[in-house]
Automatic annotation (TrEMBL):
Domain (HTH crp-type) ranges: 173-243
GO molecular function, one term: DNA binding
CDD domains the UniProt entry points to: CAP_ED, HTH_CRP
Keywords, comma-separated and alphabetical: DNA-binding, Transcription, Transcription regulation
Protein name: Transcriptional activator protein Anr
Cyclic nucleotide-binding domain segment(s): 39-159
Highest classification ranks of the organism: Bacteria, Bacillati, Bacillota, Clostridia, Eubacteriales
């Protein structure tokens, strides 16, 4: 886990709680932050422009923390480019991956409703651009546009369901079953292609599935040997027997 801190690129920004982050150069447009994220992209252009006016873009290098457990939670973070992993650390220091954020995803939403601290870590796993909205600004928008609140609640529901599914899997399913179901979930919704591009490396995949990278490699080799999959590259897998994989 990297603790690297960057330098401010914008000279007119006074030192403060965000002095460790990288600001984009003047003039760089960040409409994509607003147009990508589902909680905003249903609004009219004028409304999205209003939201864009209270956001600011920030860039992070690979390995940099967006926030850490115990940090004050007072902003919503929207990914416009790159990837962020959200994870927790056990008392023994073991990392438990919760989810990977892609462009259009967001984190820090609990700050919208109360003053609290983060219980998780958010780390850029590649060069990443984020748009940030402070709680006070977003609360004003929620009052003005209630449909945003509905979208946020829908995302809460989806994340809760995913967390429950993950916890149940740890308690009741064998490792190979967890891996098989994970591969199936990585397929596109229409299953038009049987090729899967893993959304994370094997270390993060192991953390997410509650096992070890060595076990992931061994179980994937077993699935390939039995004819369920074919490993095309380190991150690309072709599913050869979907029904068989779902029945493991």
């Amino acid at each position: 886990m990297s603790k690297n801190k960057g330098k401010i690129q914008r000279q007119d920004y006074k030192q403060g709680p965000y002095d460790h982050i990288h600001y984009h150069q003047h003039g760089e447009r960040h409409e994509t932050c607003i147009s990508l994220v589902p909680i905003f992209n249903h609004l009219e252009k004028e409304q999205m422009d209003e939201i864009m006016a209270v956001t600011y873009p920030v860039s992070y290098k690979k390995g940099e923390n967006i926030y850490s457990a115990g940090d004050k939670s007072d902003s919503l973070y929207i990914v416009s480019k790159g990837k962020i992993k959200i994870y927790r650390l056990s008392e023994s220091g073991k990392e438990q991956l919760l989810r990977i954020l892609h462009p259009g995803d967001f984190t820090g939403e609990l700050a919208l409703f109360s003053e609290t601290v983060h219980e998780e870590y958010a780390e850029a796993i590649e060069e990443t651009s984020v748009c940030t909205i402070r709680r006070s600004k977003l609360q004003q928008l929620l009052l003005k546009y209630p449909s945003i609140s509905i979208k946020i609640l829908a995302e809460f529901s989806s994340r809760l369901e995913q967390s429950e599914k993950q916890a149940t899997g740890f308690a009741t399913e064998k490792v190979e079953t967890r891996i098989a179901l994970f591969l199936v979930e990585c397929l596109d919704d229409e299953k038009q292609s049987m090729e899967v591009v893993l959304p994370m490396n094997k270390k993060d995949m192991a953390s997410y599935l509650g096992t070890t990278p060595e076990t992931i490699s061994r179980k994937l080799a077993d699935l390939e040997e039995t004819g369920y999959i074919k490993q095309i590259s380190n991150k690309k897998i072709k599913i050869l027997d979907l029904e068989g994989l779902q029945s493991i």
